[in-house]
Amino acid sequence: MDIGIIGGGINGLCCAWQLAKQGHQVQLYERDALMSATSCASSKLLHGGLRYLENREFRLVREALRERDAWIKRAPHLAQPLRLVMPIYQKSRRPGWMIALGLFLYDHLAGKSQLPKAKRLTAQEVIRRDPLLKSEGLQGGYEFSDGQMDDHALGLWVAEQARQAGVSITEHTEIVELTQDGKVTTANGAVHVHDRLINVAGPWAQRLLQASALDSPYQLDLVRGSHLILQAPCKQAYLLEAPNDRRIFFVLPWQGNTLVGTTEVRQTLNKPIACSPEERSYLLNAWSHYFPDALPNVIDTFAGLRPLLRSAEDPSKATREYALHRTGKLVTVLGGKWTTSMALADKVSHAIY
Ligand SMILES: Cc1cc2nc3c(=O)[nH]c(=O)nc-3n(C[C@H](O)[C@H](O)[C@H](O)COP(=O)(O)OP(=O)(O)OC[C@H]3O[C@@H](n4cnc5c(N)ncnc54)[C@H](O)[C@@H]3O)c2cc1C
Protein backbone atom coordinates (compact mmCIF):
# COMPACT_ATOMS: atom_id res chain seq x y z
CA MET A 1 0.00 0.00 0.00
CA ASP A 2 0.99 3.63 -0.43
CA ILE A 3 0.94 5.16 3.07
CA GLY A 4 1.24 8.82 4.08
CA ILE A 5 2.43 9.61 7.62
CA ILE A 6 2.01 13.05 9.20
CA GLY A 7 4.56 13.79 11.94
CA GLY A 8 8.29 13.17 12.24
CA GLY A 9 8.52 12.65 16.00
CA ILE A 10 9.48 9.26 17.43
CA ASN A 11 5.99 7.80 16.95
CA GLY A 12 5.77 8.83 13.29
CA LEU A 13 9.31 7.61 12.57
CA CYS A 14 8.73 4.22 14.18
CA CYS A 15 5.46 3.82 12.22
CA ALA A 16 7.30 4.71 9.00
CA TRP A 17 10.13 2.24 9.68
CA GLN A 18 7.76 -0.57 10.67
CA LEU A 19 5.45 -0.11 7.66
CA ALA A 20 8.37 0.11 5.22
CA LYS A 21 9.85 -3.11 6.65
CA GLN A 22 6.50 -4.75 5.87
CA GLY A 23 6.84 -3.76 2.22
CA HIS A 24 4.63 -0.66 2.08
CA GLN A 25 5.57 2.45 0.16
CA VAL A 26 5.81 5.17 2.82
CA GLN A 27 5.90 8.96 2.55
CA LEU A 28 6.44 10.91 5.81
CA TYR A 29 5.59 14.62 6.08
CA GLU A 30 7.14 16.75 8.86
CA ARG A 31 6.24 20.40 9.38
CA ASP A 32 9.64 21.41 10.85
CA ALA A 33 12.79 19.29 11.23
CA LEU A 34 12.58 15.64 12.29
CA MET A 35 12.63 15.09 16.07
CA SER A 36 12.31 18.79 16.86
CA ALA A 37 9.18 18.77 19.09
CA THR A 38 8.06 16.64 22.06
CA SER A 39 10.33 13.71 21.24
CA CYS A 40 13.53 15.70 21.87
CA ALA A 41 12.22 17.35 25.08
CA SER A 42 11.75 14.18 27.11
CA SER A 43 13.43 13.15 30.37
CA LYS A 44 15.58 10.83 28.19
CA LEU A 45 14.33 7.77 30.06
CA LEU A 46 13.50 4.43 28.50
CA HIS A 47 11.31 3.29 31.35
CA GLY A 48 8.32 1.28 32.41
CA GLY A 49 7.14 4.24 34.48
CA LEU A 50 7.31 3.11 38.11
CA ARG A 51 4.91 5.85 39.19
CA TYR A 52 2.22 4.70 36.72
CA LEU A 53 1.76 1.64 38.96
CA GLU A 54 0.06 4.01 41.41
CA ASN A 55 -2.53 4.63 38.68
CA ARG A 56 -2.78 0.85 38.03
CA GLU A 57 -1.55 1.12 34.45
CA PHE A 58 -0.26 -2.46 34.50
CA ARG A 59 -0.67 -3.13 30.77
CA LEU A 60 1.24 -0.02 29.81
CA VAL A 61 4.01 -0.58 32.38
CA ARG A 62 4.53 -4.18 31.20
CA GLU A 63 4.70 -3.10 27.56
CA ALA A 64 7.02 -0.18 28.36
CA LEU A 65 9.40 -2.38 30.41
CA ARG A 66 9.74 -4.81 27.51
CA GLU A 67 10.22 -1.95 25.06
CA ARG A 68 12.85 -0.42 27.39
CA ASP A 69 14.89 -3.62 27.10
CA ALA A 70 14.27 -3.85 23.35
CA TRP A 71 15.68 -0.32 22.76
CA ILE A 72 18.80 -1.10 24.81
CA LYS A 73 19.38 -4.21 22.65
CA ARG A 74 18.46 -2.49 19.38
CA ALA A 75 20.67 0.60 19.74
CA PRO A 76 23.21 0.08 22.55
CA HIS A 77 25.31 3.01 21.27
CA LEU A 78 22.47 5.43 22.11
CA ALA A 79 20.51 3.66 24.87
CA GLN A 80 22.02 2.25 28.05
CA PRO A 81 20.83 0.75 31.33
CA LEU A 82 20.60 3.22 34.23
CA ARG A 83 20.37 2.49 37.96
CA LEU A 84 18.15 4.97 39.80
CA VAL A 85 17.88 5.43 43.56
CA MET A 86 14.69 6.30 45.40
CA PRO A 87 15.71 7.42 48.92
CA ILE A 88 13.24 6.93 51.77
CA TYR A 89 12.97 9.70 54.40
CA GLN A 90 11.03 9.75 57.67
CA LYS A 91 8.55 12.16 56.06
CA SER A 92 8.29 10.45 52.63
CA ARG A 93 4.68 10.20 51.47
CA ARG A 94 5.39 6.79 50.02
CA PRO A 95 6.59 4.49 52.84
CA GLY A 96 9.36 1.92 52.32
CA TRP A 97 6.96 -1.04 52.16
CA MET A 98 5.02 0.63 49.34
CA ILE A 99 8.19 1.24 47.33
CA ALA A 100 9.33 -2.35 47.96
CA LEU A 101 5.96 -3.68 46.74
CA GLY A 102 5.98 -1.39 43.69
CA LEU A 103 9.50 -2.46 42.72
CA PHE A 104 8.70 -6.14 43.22
CA LEU A 105 5.81 -5.69 40.78
CA TYR A 106 8.00 -3.62 38.44
CA ASP A 107 10.62 -6.38 38.25
CA HIS A 108 7.88 -8.99 37.83
CA LEU A 109 6.23 -7.07 34.96
CA ALA A 110 9.68 -6.75 33.30
CA GLY A 111 9.62 -10.53 32.73
CA LYS A 112 12.96 -12.03 31.69
CA SER A 113 14.80 -8.70 31.66
CA GLN A 114 18.59 -8.60 31.30
CA LEU A 115 18.69 -5.64 33.71
CA PRO A 116 19.47 -6.20 37.41
CA LYS A 117 16.53 -6.30 39.82
CA ALA A 118 15.74 -3.74 42.53
CA LYS A 119 17.76 -3.78 45.73
CA ARG A 120 17.31 -2.28 49.21
CA LEU A 121 20.01 0.16 50.39
CA THR A 122 20.83 1.32 53.92
CA ALA A 123 21.05 5.05 54.65
CA GLN A 124 24.86 4.68 54.83
CA GLU A 125 24.98 3.05 51.40
CA VAL A 126 22.85 5.83 49.90
CA ILE A 127 25.08 8.57 51.34
CA ARG A 128 28.30 6.74 50.45
CA ARG A 129 27.27 6.90 46.78
CA ASP A 130 26.46 10.59 46.96
CA PRO A 131 27.63 12.55 50.02
CA LEU A 132 25.82 15.70 48.78
CA LEU A 133 22.36 14.13 49.23
CA LYS A 134 20.45 15.37 52.31
CA SER A 135 21.06 12.86 55.11
CA GLU A 136 18.67 14.32 57.73
CA GLY A 137 15.75 11.91 58.20
CA LEU A 138 17.15 9.45 55.65
CA GLN A 139 16.10 5.90 56.45
CA GLY A 140 17.56 4.10 53.44
CA GLY A 141 16.38 3.63 49.89
CA TYR A 142 15.94 1.37 46.91
CA GLU A 143 17.86 1.18 43.68
CA PHE A 144 16.26 -0.13 40.52
CA SER A 145 16.85 -0.40 36.78
CA ASP A 146 15.59 1.61 33.85
CA GLY A 147 17.25 2.91 30.69
CA GLN A 148 18.59 6.23 29.45
CA MET A 149 18.92 7.43 25.86
CA ASP A 150 19.91 10.39 23.77
CA ASP A 151 16.36 11.02 22.53
CA HIS A 152 17.29 13.29 19.61
CA ALA A 153 20.15 11.13 18.33
CA LEU A 154 18.17 7.91 18.77
CA GLY A 155 15.21 9.37 16.86
CA LEU A 156 17.51 10.38 14.00
CA TRP A 157 18.97 6.88 14.03
CA VAL A 158 15.43 5.50 13.59
CA ALA A 159 14.92 7.98 10.72
CA GLU A 160 18.07 6.61 9.06
CA GLN A 161 16.82 3.01 9.45
CA ALA A 162 13.49 4.11 7.96
CA ARG A 163 15.21 5.76 4.97
CA GLN A 164 17.29 2.63 4.38
CA ALA A 165 14.05 0.61 4.42
CA GLY A 166 12.75 2.86 1.63
CA VAL A 167 10.79 5.60 3.46
CA SER A 168 10.66 8.94 1.69
CA ILE A 169 10.87 11.81 4.20
CA THR A 170 9.85 15.38 3.46
CA GLU A 171 10.77 17.93 6.16
CA HIS A 172 9.49 21.53 6.43
CA THR A 173 6.20 20.48 4.84
CA GLU A 174 3.09 21.18 6.87
CA ILE A 175 -0.13 19.28 6.19
CA VAL A 176 -2.99 21.73 6.59
CA GLU A 177 -5.85 19.37 5.78
CA LEU A 178 -6.52 15.67 5.47
CA THR A 179 -9.52 13.54 4.54
CA GLN A 180 -10.82 10.08 5.43
CA ASP A 181 -10.20 9.16 1.78
CA GLY A 182 -6.43 9.46 2.16
CA LYS A 183 -5.97 12.95 0.69
CA VAL A 184 -3.54 15.46 2.22
CA THR A 185 -3.06 19.12 1.34
CA THR A 186 0.24 20.83 2.15
CA ALA A 187 0.67 24.46 3.22
CA ASN A 188 1.78 25.40 -0.30
CA GLY A 189 -1.35 23.83 -1.82
CA ALA A 190 0.05 20.53 -3.16
CA VAL A 191 -2.37 17.60 -2.93
CA HIS A 192 -1.36 13.94 -2.52
CA VAL A 193 -3.61 10.92 -2.28
CA HIS A 194 -2.52 7.81 -0.34
CA ASP A 195 -4.10 4.39 0.20
CA ARG A 196 -3.83 5.00 3.96
CA LEU A 197 -2.99 8.01 6.13
CA ILE A 198 -1.49 7.95 9.63
CA ASN A 199 -2.01 11.15 11.63
CA VAL A 200 0.72 10.93 14.27
CA ALA A 201 1.27 14.64 14.83
CA GLY A 202 1.67 14.31 18.63
CA PRO A 203 0.15 17.31 20.48
CA TRP A 204 -1.10 18.67 17.13
CA ALA A 205 -2.97 15.50 16.02
CA GLN A 206 -6.35 16.63 17.30
CA ARG A 207 -5.97 20.18 15.96
CA LEU A 208 -5.27 18.73 12.51
CA LEU A 209 -8.48 16.69 12.72
CA GLN A 210 -10.43 19.80 13.76
CA ALA A 211 -8.91 21.84 10.90
CA SER A 212 -10.11 19.05 8.58
CA ALA A 213 -13.63 19.04 10.12
CA LEU A 214 -13.12 15.48 11.42
CA ASP A 215 -14.16 14.16 14.84
CA SER A 216 -12.39 11.87 17.27
CA PRO A 217 -13.86 9.95 20.22
CA TYR A 218 -10.73 10.90 22.22
CA GLN A 219 -9.74 14.33 23.53
CA LEU A 220 -6.13 15.34 24.07
CA ASP A 221 -5.03 16.92 27.34
CA LEU A 222 -1.89 18.96 26.61
CA VAL A 223 0.40 19.09 29.63
CA ARG A 224 3.73 20.91 29.50
CA GLY A 225 6.75 19.42 31.21
CA SER A 226 9.91 21.47 31.79
CA HIS A 227 13.47 20.52 32.65
CA LEU A 228 16.53 22.36 33.96
CA ILE A 229 20.12 21.49 33.13
CA LEU A 230 22.41 22.28 36.05
CA GLN A 231 26.13 22.75 35.54
CA ALA A 232 27.25 20.02 37.92
CA PRO A 233 28.21 16.39 37.45
CA CYS A 234 25.50 14.02 38.72
CA LYS A 235 26.90 11.20 40.87
CA GLN A 236 23.67 9.24 41.04
CA ALA A 237 20.33 9.15 39.17
CA TYR A 238 17.33 9.70 41.47
CA LEU A 239 13.58 9.41 41.52
CA LEU A 240 12.47 11.86 44.25
CA GLU A 241 9.31 13.27 45.82
CA ALA A 242 8.92 17.03 45.41
CA PRO A 243 8.77 18.49 48.94
CA ASN A 244 5.54 20.52 48.64
CA ASP A 245 3.15 18.51 46.53
CA ARG A 246 4.88 15.09 46.76
CA ARG A 247 4.92 14.71 42.97
CA ILE A 248 7.69 12.53 41.56
CA PHE A 249 10.60 14.26 39.82
CA PHE A 250 13.91 13.05 38.40
CA VAL A 251 17.53 14.08 38.93
CA LEU A 252 19.61 12.47 36.18
CA PRO A 253 23.11 12.55 34.75
CA TRP A 254 23.07 14.18 31.34
CA GLN A 255 26.13 14.85 29.17
CA GLY A 256 28.38 15.58 32.16
CA ASN A 257 25.76 17.79 33.85
CA THR A 258 22.55 17.25 35.85
CA LEU A 259 19.06 17.11 34.37
CA VAL A 260 16.18 18.01 36.72
CA GLY A 261 12.56 17.52 35.69
CA THR A 262 9.75 17.63 35.27
CA THR A 263 6.60 19.69 35.78
CA GLU A 264 2.95 19.25 34.73
CA VAL A 265 1.23 22.43 33.54
CA ARG A 266 -1.78 22.45 31.19
CA GLN A 267 -1.45 24.73 28.20
CA THR A 268 -2.96 25.38 24.78
CA LEU A 269 -1.21 25.16 21.42
CA ASN A 270 -1.22 28.92 20.83
CA LYS A 271 1.23 29.55 23.69
CA PRO A 272 5.02 29.04 23.41
CA ILE A 273 6.24 25.71 24.79
CA ALA A 274 8.89 26.98 27.23
CA CYS A 275 9.89 26.64 30.88
CA SER A 276 8.13 29.41 32.88
CA PRO A 277 9.80 31.26 35.82
CA GLU A 278 7.39 29.43 38.18
CA GLU A 279 8.44 26.01 36.85
CA ARG A 280 12.09 27.00 37.11
CA SER A 281 11.74 27.94 40.78
CA TYR A 282 9.58 24.86 41.50
CA LEU A 283 12.32 22.58 40.11
CA LEU A 284 15.13 24.51 41.81
CA ASN A 285 13.32 24.37 45.17
CA ALA A 286 12.71 20.65 44.78
CA TRP A 287 16.35 20.03 43.88
CA SER A 288 17.73 22.25 46.68
CA HIS A 289 15.57 20.41 49.21
CA TYR A 290 17.63 17.27 48.55
CA PHE A 291 20.98 18.95 47.84
CA PRO A 292 21.00 21.85 50.35
CA ASP A 293 24.78 22.36 50.23
CA ALA A 294 25.18 22.42 46.45
CA LEU A 295 24.98 25.71 44.53
CA PRO A 296 23.04 25.23 41.32
CA ASN A 297 23.97 27.06 38.13
CA VAL A 298 21.19 26.63 35.55
CA ILE A 299 22.83 26.48 32.11
CA ASP A 300 19.75 25.59 30.08
CA THR A 301 16.04 24.83 30.24
CA PHE A 302 13.73 23.04 27.84
CA ALA A 303 10.07 22.07 27.70
CA GLY A 304 7.75 19.74 25.80
CA LEU A 305 4.02 19.21 25.58
CA ARG A 306 2.69 15.77 26.57
CA PRO A 307 -0.15 14.66 24.31
CA LEU A 308 -2.13 12.84 27.02
CA LEU A 309 -5.56 11.26 26.60
CA ARG A 310 -7.99 13.38 28.64
CA SER A 311 -8.82 11.21 31.65
CA ALA A 312 -8.37 13.02 35.00
CA GLU A 313 -8.52 16.47 36.59
CA ASP A 314 -5.04 16.08 38.07
CA PRO A 315 -2.57 15.68 35.16
CA SER A 316 -0.26 13.50 37.27
CA LYS A 317 -3.13 10.99 37.55
CA ALA A 318 -3.99 11.13 33.82
CA THR A 319 -3.44 7.92 31.90
CA ARG A 320 -0.25 7.56 29.84
CA GLU A 321 -1.99 5.06 27.55
CA TYR A 322 -2.36 5.75 23.85
CA ALA A 323 -5.28 5.20 21.51
CA LEU A 324 -5.71 4.56 17.79
CA HIS A 325 -8.78 5.82 15.99
CA ARG A 326 -9.63 4.70 12.46
CA THR A 327 -12.10 6.39 10.13
CA GLY A 328 -12.06 5.30 6.47
CA LYS A 329 -8.46 5.31 5.24
CA LEU A 330 -7.25 7.48 8.14
CA VAL A 331 -5.70 6.21 11.38
CA THR A 332 -5.11 8.83 14.09
CA VAL A 333 -2.71 8.17 16.97
CA LEU A 334 -3.47 9.96 20.25
CA GLY A 335 -0.99 9.88 23.12
CA GLY A 336 2.02 7.55 23.37
CA LYS A 337 5.28 7.44 25.34
CA TRP A 338 8.73 7.61 23.74
CA THR A 339 9.59 4.19 25.18
CA THR A 340 6.53 2.47 23.65
CA SER A 341 6.85 3.98 20.15
CA MET A 342 7.83 0.69 18.46
CA ALA A 343 4.95 -1.19 20.15
CA LEU A 344 2.62 1.59 18.99
CA ALA A 345 3.99 1.28 15.44
CA ASP A 346 3.26 -2.43 15.52
CA LYS A 347 -0.39 -1.75 16.45
CA VAL A 348 -0.66 0.87 13.70
CA SER A 349 0.62 -1.69 11.18
CA HIS A 350 -2.38 -3.91 12.10
CA ALA A 351 -4.89 -1.02 12.20
CA ILE A 352 -4.33 -0.14 8.52
CA TYR A 353 -6.07 -3.33 7.28
C1 LIG B 1 8.49 16.78 29.57
C2 LIG B 1 8.32 15.43 28.97
C3 LIG B 1 9.10 14.38 29.42
C4 LIG B 1 8.93 13.11 28.86
N1 LIG B 1 9.77 12.12 29.25
C5 LIG B 1 9.63 10.90 28.70
C6 LIG B 1 10.56 9.89 29.02
O1 LIG B 1 11.52 10.11 29.76
N2 LIG B 1 10.37 8.66 28.47
C7 LIG B 1 9.31 8.39 27.64
O2 LIG B 1 9.17 7.24 27.22
N3 LIG B 1 8.45 9.35 27.27
C8 LIG B 1 8.60 10.60 27.76
N4 LIG B 1 7.75 11.60 27.40
C9 LIG B 1 6.69 11.32 26.42
C10 LIG B 1 7.25 11.35 25.00
O3 LIG B 1 8.27 12.29 24.87
C11 LIG B 1 6.14 11.70 24.01
O4 LIG B 1 4.99 10.97 24.30
C12 LIG B 1 6.58 11.37 22.58
O5 LIG B 1 7.82 11.99 22.31
C13 LIG B 1 5.54 11.86 21.59
O6 LIG B 1 6.05 11.63 20.30
P1 LIG B 1 5.21 11.99 19.02
O7 LIG B 1 5.97 11.52 17.84
O8 LIG B 1 3.81 11.48 19.18
O9 LIG B 1 5.09 13.59 19.07
P2 LIG B 1 6.15 14.71 18.61
O10 LIG B 1 7.51 14.35 18.98
O11 LIG B 1 5.60 16.01 19.09
O12 LIG B 1 6.05 14.65 17.04
C14 LIG B 1 4.94 15.15 16.32
C15 LIG B 1 5.51 15.78 15.08
O13 LIG B 1 4.44 16.15 14.20
C16 LIG B 1 4.79 17.34 13.55
N5 LIG B 1 3.57 17.98 13.06
C17 LIG B 1 2.58 18.52 13.81
N6 LIG B 1 1.61 18.98 13.03
C18 LIG B 1 1.98 18.72 11.76
C19 LIG B 1 1.37 18.98 10.48
N7 LIG B 1 0.18 19.59 10.39
N8 LIG B 1 2.05 18.60 9.36
C20 LIG B 1 3.25 17.97 9.44
N9 LIG B 1 3.87 17.72 10.62
C21 LIG B 1 3.23 18.08 11.77
C22 LIG B 1 5.49 18.16 14.63
O14 LIG B 1 6.32 19.16 14.07
C23 LIG B 1 6.28 17.08 15.37
O15 LIG B 1 7.59 16.95 14.87
C24 LIG B 1 7.92 12.90 27.90
C25 LIG B 1 7.14 13.96 27.44
C26 LIG B 1 7.36 15.22 27.96
C27 LIG B 1 6.56 16.37 27.42
UniProtKB/TrEMBL annotation:
Q: Which SUPFAM superfamilies would you find in this protein's record?
A: FAD-linked reductases, C-terminal domain, FAD/NAD(P)-binding domain
Which Pfam families would you find in this protein's record? DAO (PF01266)
The UniProt entry's sequence similarity note says: Belongs to the FAD-dependent glycerol-3-phosphate dehydrogenase family.
What is the official name of this protein in its record? Glycerol-3-phosphate dehydrogenase/oxidase
Q: Which cofactor does it need?
A: FAD
Q: Name one GO molecular function term.
A: glycerol-3-phosphate dehydrogenase (quinone) activity
Any single GO BP term: glycerol-3-phosphate catabolic process
The UniProt record lists the FAD dependent oxidoreductase domain at 2-315
The reply to whether Flavoprotein figures as a keyword in the UniProt entry is yes
Q: Which UniProt keywords apply?
A: FAD, Flavoprotein, Oxidoreductase
Asked if Disulfide bond is a keyword of the record, the answer is no
Species name: Undibacterium luofuense
